[in-house]
Structure formats: structure tokens, C-alpha cells
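hey can u check if this looks right to u? its 257 residues, i copy pasted from the old doc so theres a chance i mangled smth
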Amino acid sequence: MARHSSLIDILILLPWWVNACLGAMAYGVAKYLVPELTVENPILQGIVRAGPSIALPIAFVFGVLTLLSAFHAWRRGTLLEGQTSISSIKSMSWKKFEYLTSEAFRRKGFTVQENLGAGADGGIDLALSRGGKRYLVQCKNWKTRSVGVSPVRELYALVMAEAADGGILVCSGNFSTEARRFAEGKPLQLIDGPELVRLVAGVQTAGNISSAADAPTCPRCQSVMVLRTAKRGKGIGQKFWGCSKFPKCRGTQAVGI
């Protein structure tokens, strides 16, 4: 893959309970097993004698990693549950966009390998695995333009180079006609903004976002509406349908109509 994660990154991306178990095991080995070893090498003898004294620091390090991995999982879940529309998705940073995509696929039953450190557009963002198959994912949260054919070609080349089962390109906008034509007949899936909203809606438990298929059309301009939460006025905190073209169009509709 184009990106490389450090050992610390890998440990943070593990479930918190895995780090907790690793910490307990490392503590037990250093505290009780290492002192029982019989070695002749002077260097190894020093390590054996130091075992009990470093057991607690090792456990402390894994304790910190446990907290970090738990926080990372909480942050991903909070980010996904907080989305209300394609507009809120487009407004997030590139890294948060990756976290959102990661959490959505994780809730779909995939095992997800993330990259904590690298910068934007630095290669493959996620690797998914399920049922013995592996898929490479690249995320494009471009604000002002559609995704052309070049990123699709690059993803396809990586899929072939790594012998992956397929590739998924996720964007918050749309794909050009040329990009879609190139993906036809290849092990590639293109997920645009509306499809991403449907993906998030399908795994969100709070129901803050609605898929375009379920959303009503605006009574003023006939555009798809998105679920919003009133931030002021008598109905503060209440959900309502608002036009996706706000502020150009201020059409609204009560939930349930």
C-alpha cells in the first residue's frame, strides 16, 4: 500500500479490549515468566533481572493505548451519528471523511484497516476485508469539482498490483461520465454523494440522516430534501425537512408529511 502505519498507529486502531488483553499478558510475562528463565548470556541475564521492574511501565503504556483506541472508536461513532445531510458530510475535513467512511463500512460487517498518520490523497485510505476477500478504498471529499477518471485509473492499478478482490472509490460529490465508463466491467465500485448518504443512513442508529430514496421533494423547487434540526425559534431541537439547495431555496416541510 502507498501508506505505512507505525506500530503505535496499528495498536491504536485495534479494538480497546485487544490492547487491554495485550497489556495484561505483557505484564504477566514480564512480572512472573521472565524471572523464571535461565540464561547464560550476560545481556539476557540483565534483561531477565529487569523483567519485574519494567512490568508496570509496560502495563501503563498499554493502558494509554487502550484509552486512545477507545477514544478513536468513540470519535468515529459520534462522527457518523452526527451527520444530517450531504452538506454536513461535505463540510468535514478529509481525515474526518475517512473516519466516517471507515465507520460506515465497519458497521456493514467489514474488518477495516485505517491509516492514522498520512496526509490527504496519499494513496489507499482504507482496506476492507470480509468473507476472505479484500477491497481497497480511496476517499475523495472534494468540495468544488467532480471526480474524473484519473483517480479511478489509479485505484484500478493499485487493485491489480496488490491482487485485491476489488476497489471502492468514495466521494461526496459525483463522478464524471468518463470515470463511470472506465469502471464498467472492472472490480470497482464508485460511491457518490447520494449513495454515501444512503450508506450512512443504513447504519446510523440515531436516524439523523435520511437517504435520498426516503426523502420528500421540496414543495418549492422539487429538489430532494434533507433532514435538519431546528437551532432557533419555538421548535428548537425539533427535526424538519429542509431543501438541499438551502440557502438558495428555503423550502421546508414537517417530518411525517
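The radius of gyration is 24 Å.
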